[in-house]
Amino acid sequence: MDHYFFLTETALFQGSTIEEIQMMLKCLRAEKKRFAKREMIYHAGESVQSMGVVLSGSVYVENDDLWGNKSVLDHIEPGAVFGETYACVAKEPLMVSVVAAETTEILFLNMNRLIQTCSNACEYHNRLIRNLLMIFAQKNLNLSRRIFHTSSKSIRGRLLSYLSFQATCQGSYEFTIPYNRQQLADYLSVDRSALSNELSKMKKDGLLEVNRNYFHLNEELFKSYL
Amino acid sequence: MDHYFFLTETALFQGSTIEEIQMMLKCLRAEKKRFAKREMIYHAGESVQSMGVVLSGSVYVENDDLWGNKSVLDHIEPGAVFGETYACVAKEPLMVSVVAAETTEILFLNMNRLIQTCSNACEYHNRLIRNLLMIFAQKNLNLSRRIFHTSSKSIRGRLLSYLSFQATCQGSYEFTIPYNRQQLADYLSVDRSALSNELSKMKKDGLLEVNRNYFHLNEELFKSYL
DNA sequence: AATTGTATGTTGTTATAACAACAAAGGAGC
DNA sequence: GCTCCTTTGTTGTTATAACAACATACAATT
Fold first, then answer.
1. Are B42 and B76 in contact (CB under 8 A)?
2. Which end of chain A has less Cβ packing within 10 Å, N or C?
3. Separation of CA B100 and C1' D3 in angstroms?
4. What CATH number is attached to the domain comprising B191?
C-alpha cells in the first residue's frame, strides 16, 4: 500500500500524517480491493457496512430505475468517498448502485469501527470523524442544491437557477460546467433534446451564449430575472 | 433551563445523562431563545455558525423563490435540529429560511465549539459528534429519497415511486402519509390539482384507494409496475 | 482523408402537466 | 343547524415538455 501520501490530501484524512494514517488504517482494518471496468462494487437493494474511498480510477453512482433506465447520479474521483450514508444507516438498502468506471482501486472502511472511538482511544480517530462530518455536510449541500435547481417546473426556470448559481459560484458570467448535455439533462431531470431546445430559445432571447459546456450569460438580462 | 431531561431523548444528545448534558451545554455555551409565531429565525442569504435544536413549538424550513412563491421544505419538531449543514460549511449562504410555525424555543449550538474537541477533552463531546454524524446520514438519506421520487418525469411515476416506498417502509399496502395534498405536491414538485387529478385516474385504473392522507394500494397491480 | 462513433442541435407530433376557475366536501366555532 | 374557512376534487384550456427521428458537428482511429 503506497497510497499513504495520497491519502493525506483527501478530505477524509486531511490533517493527519502518513504515520497516523498507517495506524488508523490498521486500527480500522481497512481493506483494499481492485475492480475491473464495469464491475459492480455495490448493488442497489443490498445493505452495506463499509464506505469506500477511491484510491485510483473512478466510479459511477447510478440509479437503475424500475423500467431499466440507467441514470448516472454521481461520478466519484480519487480521494472522494461513496456509500458513507448507507454505511451509517446500515439497515437501509441502497437506492443506487456503484460501478467501476474504469480499472479502480477502492479502500473499504468499516463504519462501525470508524464510528466508535477505538479501545486504544487513538486521538486521530476523532479527527477522522470530524472530517467525515464535513464530507457529510458537503454532500448534503449538494443534494439540497440539486433539489433547489429542479424545483422550478419549467426547463428554463431550472436552467436559470442552475446557471446563475454557477455564475455566482465561479465568480463570473463566463464559465464552463462539468457536465455534457445528457448529464446536465439528468441533473435537472429533463429530456436532453428539450434541454438543447430551450438553450437555443434562450440564445434567441439574448440570455446567453453557449458552446458545448462553455456558457456566457448576459448579465443584464439574467439580473432582470433576479 | 428545565429541558435537560427532554434532551436525553433527542437524536443529538441520546446516550448522555442529564448531568453530562448540563456540562456539555455549558462547555458549548449553548443559548436558548424564544420566537413568536411567524418570526424569522434564519434568513435565506445569510450565513450562520450555529445549528438549532427545537425545544418546544416547531419551525418551517421554507424556500422563498425568486418569483415570490413560498414552499415549505421541512417541518422541524421538538427534539430535531436545523441549520446543521450550513453551520458546518459556514461560508455557504442559506438557500432556505427558517420560520417559527408557532411560539417556539430554540437552543442554539455553535458549530465551531461543537466540532473541535474542547480543551478539557470532555468525553461526552465525542458522542455528540457521533450522534450528529448519524443525524447527517439520516438527512442525507431523506434528501436522496426525495430526488429519487422526483426523478420520474410523469406525476404517476413519482406517485408510484413515493407510494411503493411508503408501503415498503410502513410494511403494509394500507397506510397514511404525513402530508396533505398540497404538501405532497410540493414534495413531488408537481401542481396540486394535477396531483389530485392523477390520483383519480389511478383510482379508476384500480391501482389504489385514497381518502385524504389514507392510501390502500392494490398489491397485484402495483407489483406489475414493479 | 476516410470512417466510425458520439454529442449536440433541430423539427414536428403527441402526451401531459400547469393553470385557472369552480364545485364539493370536511372541519371548527358559534 | 348555520357560517366561515380550508382542503380536496373536477373540468376545460393552454402551455410546454417528452418523444422520436433525423441532421449536423465534433472527435478519435485508422
1. no
2. C
3. 30
4. 1.10.10.10
Count Cβ atoms within 10 A of the Cβ of residue A83 and give its class: 0-12 exposed, 13-18 middle, 19 or more buried.
buried
Give the distance, in angstroms, between residue B200 CA and nucleotide C22 C1'.
18
Residues with Cβ within 8 Å of residue A32, at least 6 apart in sequence: A1, A3, A55, A105, A106, A107, A108
Contact B122, B23 (CB under 8 A): yes
Same domain, A54 and A129: yes
Alpha-carbon distance A165 to nearest alpha carbon in chain B (angstroms) = 11
Which nucleotide across the nucleic acid strands is nearest to B190, CA versus C1'?
C17
pLDDT digits (tens, 9 = 90+) for A170-226: 999 999 999 999 999 999 999 999 999 999 999 999 999 999 999 999 988 887 775
Overall number of domains in chain A: 2
Residues A134 and A159 in one domain: no
- Residue numbers of the domain that contains B44: 4-142
User: In terms of domains, do B80 and B54 share one?
Assistant: yes
Quick check: B180 CB within 7 A of strand D? yes
Of B142, B167, B185, the residue that ends a domain is B142
Q: What is the pLDDT of residues A133-162, one digit of tens each?
A: 999 999 999 999 999 999 999 999 999 999
Contacts of B63 in chain A (CB under 8 A): 148, 151
Residue that finishes a domain, picked among B88, B121, B142: B142
